[in-house]
Amino acid sequence: MEVEGASLRRAEASGLDLAALVAELPEAGVAGLETTLNLLIAGIGGAGVTTTAAVLAMAAHIDGKQASTLDMTGLAQKGGPVTSHLRFSTADRAIEGPRIPTASLDVLLASDMVVATNAEQLALIDRERTAGFANSRVAPTAEFVMKQTLSFDEARMLKTLDEACPLFAGHDIARIAEALFGDAIYANMMLVGMAHQAGRLPLTTTALDTAIRLNGAAVEKNLSAFHAGRVLFAAPEKILAGLPAANAVDPAGEMDLDTRIAFLGRELAAYQDEAYAKRFLDTVAAVRAADERAGNGTLRLTRTLADGLYGRWPTRTSTRSRGFTRSPTSAPG
After folding, report:
1. Which of 12-21, 121-130, 196-205, 250-259 has the lowest mean pLDDT?
2. Residue 252, domain member (yes or no)
3. How far is CA 253 from CA 176, 260, 293, in A?
């Protein structure tokens, strides 16, 4: 099916008074450059990884410091793995090669945890000095799209980074960015803000603001995302409490079972109709009854069934195009 004259529907931005929260922040510290400082951005294509690296390099030049970048894109297109190596030094000391050496990483911006926990990236971490800042949302991989199965565990990846980095902060930043700014593309700039407020970047706030403006892309939203990241690191409860109720982030990262089942049912009803959702809910209820009688009390089977069935539930019979808005002149293809 093809929809003409339509555009992707984006989440509505939050009305959070970000300026007031930023005004309450203490001045961020600036990391020293006694030795070369190494930063890695690990993400996926189409999410702004290389653009974020360019902004950071520009900020370094504005501050009168040296910076080198090495973008490792390989065959990546939108959704493929992308990493950017950034190295910072003083103006009078040369940077010896653009690639970060093994076990010498100072800052990790994990825009995508699947990429960040790859063995090649983990080998760069120094367990005594690396500060990690992560987006806990995992983008669907090709395996999930083709088979509706996942061979990775989100909790395990978070634990891996938490244990590897002496300082670690992780949130569902993509979801927060969608709630605050209407698009997950701003997650990378929020990660920059978190690292900056933690005092782990060798860059001033003024230089970062200027570099974002010079980049010229969605300037106001990128500036807001940068400063929202600062607030998220310093006072996460103020950001999370200010999100719209429909987008509120569960701090534990997981809904309880009843809430999850009801949520999935509403999603299917919105996709097609109430009868469609009822088929799903009736199936889950039957399995839950058996799970309660014969299971070990955790209802893990019910949760797994609900998530798996929702992912595999046939949707091609629907003629609706969820996630799009249609103009009055649109016509079905």
Report:
1. 250-259
2. no
3. 13, 12, 28
